[in-house]
Amino acid sequence: MSGKIVGVISIKGGVGKTTVVSNLAAALAKQGRKVLAIDANFSAPNLGIHVGVVNKENTIHEVIAGKIDASEAIYPNEAGFDIMPARLLPIRIDPLRLKRKISALKNSYDFILIDSSPNLNEEMAATMAASDELIVVSSPDFATLSCTMRAVKAAREKKVPITGLVLNRVRNKHYELTLDEIESSTEVPVVGLMPEEEKVLEALSVTTPVVVFAPRKDVSIEYQKLAAAISGGKYRDTRLWSNVRNFLFENNFSKVDVNRTVIAGKKK
Ligand SMILES: Nc1ncnc2c1ncn2[C@@H]1O[C@H](COP(=O)(O)OP(=O)(O)OP(=O)(O)O)[C@@H](O)[C@H]1O
Ligand SMILES: [Mg+2]
């Protein structure tokens, strides 16, 4: 097995990187993939909290410090994938050792997702260096877009391929930036359009990804579609309303669906 390492980045904090990592991991796991999610937000980690894995003695910090082997800091969680948490009270480490410490794990997983720090310093550089490809998380407002453009520029300078943008917390309001505006500013295709959804917050309160907590919500179906595209396939939404909609509005392909078909095609 030779898995792919996918880094999830954004320069602005709080846009949804950890939510994307935990839900994409859960969706890939539901589709039968073997997945590891790594918390590489070394200074302010919280991936463990999103999936109910907390207070573990062995973490990525000990792995990078050379105290333990990477395989000793891996824990399963109820959403069906493995996680390598970080220390909630971090110790000083050299983040740039990340790549060396985790690359052998590619032999054991289909996908390794890395949850990055939002700081454009060596913490984010470590995620970029360790990743085969990147997903950039953004939201449809000017403040976030300017940070997103910087994140895209930084990835391009480091020559790490960007699979696409995930637009998170989309409310479909007139004051939001449009998909075309975002794609033309960044020159990166939008491959996931995640609606603002209260269930995401409710799911977090019980430390469960929304894909598991409320699998039939639009946001969860979007994660399933993104997961399928990343593995080179297509997810069929079997919900009744979605079938009625497709029947009534024949050829109702969204731009994001087309982008996902393109990235799925490249994975084959
Ligand atoms: N689609 C959504 N709808 C509603 N709330 C959301 C959605 N996505 C994320 N959130 C909420 O937004 C908050 C921030 O998300 P998250 O922790 O994933 O961001 P982050 O980019 O990882 O932050 P940091 O940069 O601090 O690591 C969380 O409370 C999360 O539950
Ligand atoms: Mg985070």
Question: What does the model show?
Answer:
- The chain is an alpha/beta fold.
- The protein has one domain: Rossmann fold (3-Layer(aba) Sandwich).
- Helices cover 41% and strands 16% of the residues.
- An eight-stranded mixed beta sheet has the order 3-4-2-5-1-6-7-8, sandwiched between helices.
- The longest helix is centred in the middle third of the chain and has 16 residues.
- It is globular, with a radius of gyration of 18 Å.
- Bound molecules: adenosine-5'-triphosphate and magnesium ion.
- The site of adenosine-5'-triphosphate (ATP) has 20 residues, from helix 1, strand 7 and helix 8.
- The site of magnesium ion has 5 residues, from helix 1.
